[in-house]
## 1
Amino acid sequence: MFKVENITKKYGTRTVLDDVSLTFKTGQITSLVGANGAGKSTLLSIMARFLKQDSGNVFFEERNMASFKNLEIAKRVASLRQSNSFNIRITVRETVAFGRFPHSKGRLKKADEDIIDKSLEYMAITPMQDKFIDQLSGGERQRVFIAMILAQDTDHILLDEPLNNLDMKQSASIMRNLRNIVDETKKTIIIVVHDINCASCYSEEIVALKNGKLMLQATPEEFMQEGVIKEIFDVDCKIAEVDGNKICVYHNCDKCSDEADKPVELLHSHRCSSCAEKPL
């Protein structure tokens, strides 16, 4: 279990995180949401020990994260940064195999190979395992990097905006795969996402930050309220229900607010029929 206490981080005179304290539950997906600059990625980077906080503490399994040796934490927590690349020509399988390094030190055994196979399978990339990374699309590469994190086989996984630059189909596919992993293995995934509809549909809990402050830690049902969205993102919206999931429909046209009451094609494609304004 992760617990952060009174975390503050500044860049010069700008406060990025302002005395943030919260506890993350285990065995579920928790989504970190908020506008650009809210502090989401900074908080995750501090939890992953990529970045040092100015004050406060991060606890993992009731131990201060600062007390763990690098190898020790690598066997317990797997973290994916926003930007990932390799400067060497390497295959998909070889890339995923890097996730086993904390356990194998590069000397792969059958148990390691089995975990690599399972990670490739989870992300539906087994057929491309012999391709080189530079032959893949951006979405395919992202699946490979997530598979590498899965191959690390930790109980806790931290993902910083893994859906960046992906289209809707790729994003939905990755979120479904992560959901299946948690349902099957009871791993804990903490993920930074911009799409609050993805957070609503695939998470048990949503943590919202604004201007470096913790605004809300709630279930999707509690979070997906028009007033809550307005307060956190400063945008007007309508909340619709599709297949039992709360969906936020946000647009900038006062004249067509009733359009948002028509739930289906609206998810990412709502267009105002009255004034032809595009959604935000």
Note: The first strand starts at residue 2 and ends at 11.
## 2
Amino acid sequence: MVGLFVCTMFLGMPLRGYGEDGSPTKSFTYKKTKQVDLEIIVHYPPGWKDTDKRPAIVFFFGGGWTNGSVKQFESQATHLANRGMIAARADYRVKSRQGVTPKECVEDAKSAVRWLRQNAAKLGIDPNRIVAAGGSAGGHIAACTALVPGLDADGEDTAVSSQPNAMVLFNPVLRLDEPQLLRFVGNDKVLAKSMSPTLYLTKDAPPTLLLYGSADRLAAQGDEFMKKSKELGHRAEMFTAEGQKHGFFNRPPWLEKTTQRMDEFLVSIGYLKAKPTGKP
């Protein structure tokens, strides 16, 4: 049976290394599947204690549900750890390595959020302040954890919620049922609709930050999400990088600009303290 693997035996092990800028990290197995054991890399902030109740964020890499690496978002995770959050980067199964479909990608993302909440007391996390984040396909599966019902892996404790409390989505796919994307689910329109987050948006959905380049063909999906959000009275914000295409946030100066915008959003919802202003 494939299910959630709660890695409590490793939670007392020494930290394994350091992320960018020196934040200590530790790797855990958050889930065992028939294809592979899935890793989550946790970045710890300065002064961390397991008795803390800090906000947390988990990042999911992009790659069209087909490729990608957990290495992505190391810079953003390190930044947020240094700002006081628990920041994690979760691996998940993809087509090129494990022969899966987007459905399994969503299952793994839900497992990762659930694992953080299930282990909150040992990780020093506030279980009611968990953010799901990601880019492109990773943004899609992050959004699915918050909005799409079902798609839980067999054997998981569904009494523990896999829904995050906020979202930060970098040029995400929000409508998988669009004609140009149906090929990723074998042209199964029913399945595609079941994994289209915008269709499930409600007023009470977690507060959301979207970040798109204006030249990205997926930007129209962000516009649709924002329009529906406004109609519902749901809190959502969008950062637009003028003239930029898909994946713009991975390189300077947009890496720094989007990281700053993410920081501001997390300050606005009370997950980070505002940075000091003025002269020292």
Note: Residues 45 and 81 are 4 Å apart (CA to CA).
